């Protein structure tokens, strides 16, 4: 167990829960990459932080809780729960997320969140869209395109 890396992950999630972007950014390596089922791959600290700012801007009243943080010298894991109102539909979402981390220079250089896309789409989008289409590749692409468009519209940092 690497206590510094456990503390780093905890600091990140504490900052996320307080929408403290400056502290979140200090946890990330300049070459960080982030991935999840929606954004897939976002490269570089500036773009990753832009993604978090966009995400937290459309998630009304985000409340997050984390648990089960583990880390060694190279990698770490955590589980976290995101509770928010999805702004596009006004629907309540409770998303259970597994996070994987890699470290370099005692900072997070890789952050990957994994969650059940179909379950998320049912909560966020409701019926019939989320229930009927949440599992289809075309629907996933549509959701991904809508989510990443604002990030891409801002251009390079």
From TrEMBL:
Pfam families: SnoaL_2. It comes from Nonomuraea marmarensis. Signal peptide: none annotated. This is Nuclear transport factor 2 family protein. InterPro entries: NTF2-like_dom_sf, SnoaL-like. Residues 11-111 form the SnoaL-like domain.
């Amino acid at each position: 167990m690497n206590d510094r890396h456990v503390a780093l992950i905890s600091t990140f999630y504490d900052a996320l829960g307080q929408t403290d972007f400056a502290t979140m950014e200090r946890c990330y390596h300049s070459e960080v990459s982030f991935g999840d089922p929606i954004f897939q791959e976002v490269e570089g600290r500036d773009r990753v932080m832009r993604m978090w700012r966009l995400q937290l801007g459309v998630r009304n009243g985000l409340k997050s809780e984390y648990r089960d943080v583990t880390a060694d010298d190279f990698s770490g894991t955590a589980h976290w729960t995101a509770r928010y109102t999805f702004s596009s539909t006004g629907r309540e979402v409770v998303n259970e997320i597994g996070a994987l981390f890699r470290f370099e220079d005692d900072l997070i250089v890789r952050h990957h969140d994994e969650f059940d896309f179909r379950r998320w789409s049912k909560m966020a989008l409701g019926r019939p869209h989320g229930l009927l289409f949440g599992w289809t590749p075309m629907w996933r692409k549509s959701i991904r395109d809508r989510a990443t468009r604002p990030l891409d519209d801002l251009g390079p940092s």
